[in-house]
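Per your request, structure below.
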């Protein structure tokens, strides 16, 4: 069956869309096959087979958690053993204990800054202290949320139209394939000049650096959503479209009643991929645009060059990874929820 979505190859899309194997069906068929070979009077063997088929919840939890825990502990052990052997311009590479101490120091700084801000507000003054590590985490989250939201607002409508129209898909396909691999570092100077010329107010609603970072994130993260939306729209069962023609549904009714419900799982898969790309792009954009955030925090600590800088940079790197993992899990949960609703 030919579809309108030619934005990516079929193999590329298959690597980006996750599918859940029917585990429960496999277990059920195995249980039936096993029960068929057990004699009718052998109740003890039947009970043993049931125990093998379905583990208790506690055992399942243990089997699911011990491999990651062993992996993390092994990594921490190697890190502790090898860190003193790696020498840098600021001394030996910090181990887990040094990074943990740096994290506690950053939390102490945050608590002190909150206390100073509360005292300033109580005295009727405006707190003007530098942003803390926690403040920059929230700034990065707001920036990536803005960028991915803008990307979704652009990519989803374009993907829907591309999936429903072969001619429109053929028209934008070369542009997508050319612009998709462009690095965020190449977009940054262009976006900076455009935003600087557009925002001329001395007190803009949104800081220029924030707008620049958000637009760069949007430019680099809209492609997975656009491609997955186009493929999901073009993969709709043709029988549904034929029913829509028989019922003489309008273009809007066909879009809202037939296309969107079928394409939602693909759209959320693209948004999940876009969020991961946007979070990676954001750090580089914040470094170069000097927008307050985790990227600027890493760059400032690198420029500082103190004894604690390397440990604080490693704290930021670990936090960036943990936040990225958390955002991916949130989007995966939404993707599964939408997919379940679409199938029901």
């Amino acid at each position: 069956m030919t579809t309108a979505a030619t934005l990516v190859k079929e193999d590329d899309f298959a690597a980006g869309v996750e599918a859940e194997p029917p585990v429960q069906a496999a277990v059920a068929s195995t249980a039936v096959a096993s029960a068929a070979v057990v004699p009718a009077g052998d109740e003890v063997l039947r009970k043993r087979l049931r125990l093998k088929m379905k583990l208790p919840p506690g055992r399942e939890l243990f089997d699911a958690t011990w491999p990651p825990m062993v992996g993390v502990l092994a990594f921490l052990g190697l890190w502790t053993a090898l860190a003193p052997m790696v020498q840098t311009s600021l001394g030996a590479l910090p181990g887990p204990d040094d990074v943990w101490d740096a994290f506690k120091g950053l939390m102490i700084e945050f608590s002190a800054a909150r206390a100073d801000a509360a005292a300033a507000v109580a005295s009727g003054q405006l707190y003007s202290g530098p942003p803390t590590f926690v403040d920059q985490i929230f700034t990065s989250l707001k920036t990536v949320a803005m960028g991915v939201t803008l990307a979704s607002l652009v990519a989803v409508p374009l993907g829907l139209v591309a999936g429903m129209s072969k001619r429109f898909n053929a028209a934008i396909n070369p542009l997508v394939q050319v612009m998709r691999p462009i690095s965020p570092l190449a977009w940054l100077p262009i976006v900076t000049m455009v935003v600087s010329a557009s925002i001329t107010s001395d007190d803009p609603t949104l800081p220029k650096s924030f707008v620049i970072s958000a637009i760069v994130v949007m430019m680099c993260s809209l492609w997975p959503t656009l491609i997955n939306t186009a493929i999901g729209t073009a993969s709709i069962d043709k029988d549904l479209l034929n029913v829509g023609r028989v019922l003489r549904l309008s273009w809007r009714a066909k879009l809202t009643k037939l296309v969107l419900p079928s394409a939602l799982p693909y759209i959320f898969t693209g948004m999940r991929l876009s969020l991961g790309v946007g979070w990676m792009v954001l750090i580089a954009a914040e470094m170069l645009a000097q927008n307050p955030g985790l990227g600027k925090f890493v760059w400032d600590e690198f420029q500082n060059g103190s004894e604690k800088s390397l440990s604080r940079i490693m704290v930021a790197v670990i936090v960036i990874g943990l936040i990225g993992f958390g955002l991916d899990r949130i989007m995966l949960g939404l993707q599964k929820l939408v997919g379940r609703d679409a199938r029901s």
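The longest strand covers residues 87-88.

Regards,
D.
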